[in-house]
Each structure stands twice: as structure tokens, then as C-alpha cells.
Design a protein that fits this description.
This protein has 14 helices and twelve strands. It is α/β, with parallel strands linked by helices and 321 residues long. The chain folds into two domains: 173 residues, Glucose-6-phosphate isomerase like protein, domain 1 (Rossmann fold, 3-Layer(aba) Sandwich); 121 residues, Roll (CBS-domain). It has a five-stranded parallel sheet, sandwiched between helices. A four-stranded mixed sheet has the order 6-7-8-9. The longest helix is centred in the first third of the chain and has 22 residues.
Length: 321
């Protein structure tokens, strides 16, 4: 057996299955999206065996994108777990054959509760398809399994259809980065989407700021004592310039005695800054773009006054990087 060729054949069989379900998408998909969009309760996903595992993933994806969902095992459903269902819910049922016994057993209860049913099946003439308010084809003409027994291409098709439902639904609902972050508060992803500059910035006496009239020797003291490697030049609350360690070295190299001169002779005008309500991730991106290690923070009102400073180390400590 040529292992690499066999592996490629498996992938190609699954690609063909995905192409086929894409061709067969019709107004039933739009019906399904509208059913999910108008759902006032939860989305209940059910399926047996490998279809059940795919159903668990679909339920998790829907929940993480703003559509409260859970997985109901159909065998457990017929032994009491159907009590989880409420009249406002929507059911997504997955079965390649459309005749899975455990699933067919609970269909009458789903119908008795008058719940909308979205059927994902490879058999459009099956009992599951006939019961569905929207029927989505997720079949495969050929499984990747050489025995034609283990669900492979068909489960890939069902998984992709579930992703399509979740993605189109979140677009229709106007689901934003902030909403996603709210549901994913843990780890780097949550921090990148939740933490704002104002959550990490230094304020008050910690801000290294001087006036344009300040003598260089005093500016050096401010830079050294505050520890940010820079001082902001502020006039009437507005950031008009910046003086950094690098500016100090350049001024010493070009001038015999710059220490008694005013900082506005040596400052860099129009320095980079960031608003307090920006995501901390945006501060990191700006630092990387301009190869700098700190940003002065401005208020997000009409005045845009200097209210803080944020350093690369702050982002590192917060786990943004």
C-alpha cells in the first residue's frame, strides 16, 4: 500500500463530499437560518454515534457564537431527558440514514411539543427528512472508509453544514468581536478581545510628562524616575511631542551642552498615541508597527487630553503577547 497516496485519497473523497453538499444547498438552508434566528429558546442538537459526536461540536460552536445550545443524547432522551425540551426550543437532528431508531423514537415528542425541526441527513426520503421543517443534505456518495462502514465523509459533511449554520447565523445576528470575547473570557483569546488600554495603563503621578519649557536636565530626571524610557511633552493637556532615551543620545551627540536647553528644541513632534477605550491588542499592534515600546494614552472625549501611558511590559504581564 502506498500510504501517502491512500491518505490523499481519503482527503479527496471528503473534499468531494463537501463539494456535493455545497451544490445541494437550496432554500432549505435559508429556512433553517430563519428558524434559528427566530428561536426564542435554546437550540437542541441530537444524534447517535458518530453523528452524535458531530452534534456535540455543532452545539458547542453555536453556543460560542451567541446561540445558546446543548446536546441531547436521543437514547437518553427517550428515558427522561426529553424533559429538557421547552416549547420555545429548536431541534437539529443528525442522521446519515435518516432512520436511526433512537432518533426516530423521539420525533413524535418533538412534534407534540410543536418544536421546529432542522434535519441533517443523507437520505432526503427518510423519516427524519419527512419530519423536518428544513432538510439539509449532508450525505456522501462514498465514505472514505474502504469498507464503506465507518462514517467518515458523511460526518465531515455534517460538521461542515453545522459550521455553515453557525457562521451565517452569527452574521445575520450581527455578532461582533466584543460578543465573542464575552463568551470566551479565558486564555489569550479572551484577553486580546476583552482587555482595553485603560485596564492596563499607568495614570496620575506615574505618567512621565513635562512642559515644552522644561530644561533637558529635568527631563532626564523625569525619564529616569518614571522608568518608561520617555517623557511626553504636554501643553494645556495636549500631547505635542515626546522625548526618549534615543532622543537624548542624539542630542548629546549633536550639541556640546544641551542640558540647560529646553526640551522643545529636541522633542519629536506628533508622537504616536492611543485612546483609552481601544483594545490593548491595538496598542501592541501599534508598538510593533512603529517599533516603539510605549504609548501615551489619550481620553476618548473631544479634548483628547493625556491621561496615561502604557508600556510593552504591561502587555506582556497581561498575557496579550
Amino acid at each position: 500500500m502506498d500510504i501517502l497516496s491512500a491518505a490523499k485519497e481519503v482527503i479527496n473523497i471528503e473534499i468531494e463530499a463537501l463539494a456535493k453538499i455545497a451544490e445541494k444547498i437550496d432554500n432549505n438552508f435559508e429556512k433553517a437560518i430563519n428558524i434559528l434566528f427566530n428561536c426564542k429558546g435554546k437550540v437542541v442538537v441530537t444524534g447517535m454515534g458518530k453523528s452524535g459526536l458531530i452534534g456535540q461540536k455543532i452545539a458547542a460552536t453555536l453556543s460560542s457564537t451567541g446561540a445558546p445550545s446543548f446536546f441531547l443524547h436521543p437514547a437518553e432522551g427517550s428515558h427522561g431527558d426529553l424533559g429538557m425540551l421547552e416549547k420555545r426550543d429548536v431541534v437539529i437532528a443528525i442522521s446519515n440514514s435518516g432512520e436511526t431508531e433512537e432518533l426516530i423514537t423521539i420525533l413524535p415528542i418533538i412534534k407534540r411539543l410543536d418544536l421546529k425541526l432542522i434535519s441533517l441527513t443523507g437520505n432526503p426520503n427518510s423519516s427524519l427528512a419527512k419530519a423536518g421543517d428544513a432538510v439539509l443534505y449532508v450525505g456522501a456518495e462514498k465514505e472514505a472508509c474502504p469498507l464503506g462502514l465507518a462514517p467518515t465523509a458523511s460526518t465531515t459533511a455534517a460538521l461542515a453544514m453545522g459550521d455553515a449554520l453557525a457562521v451565517i447565523l452569527l452574521k445575520k445576528r450581527g455578532f461582533k468581536e466584543e460578543d465573542f470575547a464575552f463568551l470566551h473570557p479565558g486564555g489569550i483569546l479572551g484577553k486580546r478581545l476583552l482587555l482595553k488600554v485603560e485596564d492596563l495603563m499607568h495614570t496620575g503621578e506615574m505618567i512621565p510628562v513635562v512642559s515644552p519649557e522644561t530644561e533637558m536636565k529635568d527631563v532626564i530626571y523625569v525619564i529616569s524616575s518614571k522608568g518608561f524610557g520617555a517623557a511626553g511633552i504636554v501643553e494645556n493637556g495636549k500631547l505635542i511631542g515626546i522625548f526618549t532615551d534615543g532622543d537624548l543620545r542624539r542630542s548629546l551627540a549633536k550639541n556640546e551642552n544641551p542640558l540647560n536647553k529646553k526640551v522643545d528644541e529636541f522633542m519629536t513632534k506628533n508622537p504616536k498615541s492611543i485612546l483609552k477605550n481601544e483594545l490593548a491588542m491595538k496598542a501592541l499592534q501599534k508598538m510593533e508597527q512603529f517599533a516603539i515600546t510605549s504609548l501615551f494614552v489619550l481620553s476618548d472625549d473631544e479634548d483628547k487630553n493625556v491621561i496615561g501611558i502604557i508600556h510593552l511590559h504591561d502587555l506582556l504581564k497581561a498575557g496579550i503577547v
